[in-house]
Amino acid sequence: MRHHDRNRKLGREKRQRVALLRNLARSLILKEGITTTGAKAKALRPFVERLVTTAKKNTLASSRITAMRLGSPETDEKLKELAKRFGKRSGGYTRIVRLGRVGKRVGDMSRIEFVK
Q1: Which of 11, 17, 54, 102 is disulfide-compatible with 109, CB 3.0–4.6 A?
Q2: Distance (Å, whole) CA 51 – CA 24
Q3: Is the predicted pLDDT of residue 28 greater than 80, yes or no?
């Protein structure tokens, strides 16, 4: 039995995985939509949704948490705009659309984007 295997490892060590998720989250927040593999999109979704929920609280502590997780001032400002946009929504800020074959990649590409 494989207990406690809910996180996706993405073939990386922990530091590499955290760095990957941070970079993907920065790109997603700034561009409001990115194309990546399906596994990375599924791993990114809870990470970003927690950030938006934290930013919606609009306190000093929440802004420090988001700044620590993202590490970029322009991303922090954009995240505050997204938090205002999703003010009345209680979760489900992103959608994942499977794209199939993109370029030479066969069948596993997806687009993750914020809902309007």
Answers
A1: 102
A2: 13
A3: yes
Range of the domain at 68: 14-114
* Chain mean pLDDT for the chain: 92
For 98, 99, 109, the CA distances from 102, given in Å and listed in that order, are 10, 7, 7
42 found inside a domain: yes
Instruction: Please tell me the pTM assigned to this model.
Output: 0.89
| CATH number of 61's domain | 3.90.1030.10
CA–CA dist 55, 89 (Å, integer): 13
Q: What is the mean pLDDT of residues 43-67?
A: 95
What tokens does 77 get? Answer: 């400002």
- Does position 83 have pLDDT exceeding 90, yes or no? yes
